[in-house]
Design goal:
A hairpin with a 5-residue loop joins strand 1 and strand 2. The protein has a two-stranded antiparallel ribbon. The protein is mainly alpha-helical. The chain has 8 helices and 2 strands. The chain has 2 domains: 69 residues, Rna Polymerase Sigma Factor, Chain: A, CATH 1.10.1740.10; 94 residues, Winged helix-like DNA-binding domain superfamily/Winged helix DNA-binding domain (Arc Repressor Mutant, subunit A, Orthogonal Bundle), CATH 1.10.10.
Length: 187
């Protein structure tokens, strides 16, 4: 098993960048980094496969950031489509690149109105109110469209891949269900 000192040396900077991209207060980000390494030190025995160390560390980091926002009571909500799948993690691995390319390709298979809803809400970061104004739709119509688009995209993803989730619904690992997926350009 890798020592926690080695983990600190290898992952301090990538985790710091990851946190800084999500928490803009420098002091809070440093506190979160310390909390992550405390959690790692306390729970390193839970890691069954050393080959999944990086994924496990970033999952611990995601959980620490979520906990931070919960403590802030700011109404922070996780997106239905995890940010790391859309934007990629702080450092993209081959596996991350594969699922990211697959997801982007699948968006092109959505009906145009759902594709537009995903792109505007998830990639351009428009609020649903802004989308309603831009598209000339009612707010409830946009909410419905975004919800249906996410459901359609989730259906395409689950047809292609099998996912392993943590207790909060974040993706820990995935594998393709078959050798080639008709919706996935990464195959």
């Amino acid at each position: 098993m890798v020592s926690t000192n080695k983990i600190w040396e290898d992952f301090k900077e990538p985790l710091k960048r990851y946190i800084a991209g999500r928490v803009h207060n420098k002091h809070d980000a440093e506190d979160i980094l310390q909390e992550i390494f405390f959690r790692v030190h306390s729970h390193i025995g839970c890691l069954k496969e050393e080959s999944k160390l990086r994924a496990w560390l970033f999952q611990v980091a995601r959980n620490a950031v979520v906990d931070y926002y919960r403590r802030q009571n700011s109404g922070f909500q996780l997106s239905v489509i995890p940010e790391d799948i859309i934007n990629g993690p702080a450092e993209i691995t081959d596996e991350d690149q594969d699922i990211t390319m697959c997801l982007r390709s699948m968006i092109n298979y959505l009906p145009e109105k759902y594709k537009q809803a995903i792109l505007l809400s998830e990639f351009e970061g428009l609020t649903q109110k802004e989308m309603a104004e831009k598209l000339g739709l009612s707010l409830s119509g946009v909410k419905s469209r975004v919800q249906r688009a996410r459901k359609e995209l989730k259906g395409l993803l689950t047809d292609c891949c099998q996912f392993e989730f943590d207790r909060l619904g974040n993706i820990l690992d995935y594998r393709h269900k078959r050798e080639s997926c008709p919706h996935c350009a990464a195959d």
